[in-house]
Amino acid sequence: MVEDATNLLDEIHGTLASKAPEGISLLEKFISVLEADLNLPASARQSFTEKYVAGILDVSDVEARSIEVYRMEEIIEGKSRYIVFYPVVHRA
Questions:
Q1: Do residues 27 and 71 share a domain?
Q2: Looking at the 3D structure of the chain, how many domains does it have?
Q3: What does the pLDDT look like over 32-89, one tens digit per residue?
Q4: Which domain range does residue 89 map to?
Q5: 81-85: long-range contacts (C-beta < 8 A, 24 or more apart)?
Q6: pTM higher than 0.70
Q7: Strand partners, 85
């Protein structure tokens, strides 16, 4: 699963580089979400990530509730990990 996500992001990056290079910096900002303090308990780090995802959805004006949010890969200080989330979107 991690490899599939990485391959997809590489493909998006390549497409942006050739067709819309100005979009690369936006993609980099979107996928490089800061980690919570590594000294915090795991539940506090998870809460930080969930709140960050909620903030992205708010700014994007997406009315959704995430049913699962987690980060991929192992924790390496100074390196952001990809966030995976599964939203439930309520339609009127």
A1: no
A2: 2
A3: 677 888 899 999 988 998 888 888 788 878 788 778 887 877 877 777 777 777 777 6
A4: 33-92
A5: 81/35, 82/2, 82/5, 82/6, 82/9, 82/31, 83/31, 83/33, 83/49, 83/52, 83/53, 84/5, 85/53
A6: no
A7: 69
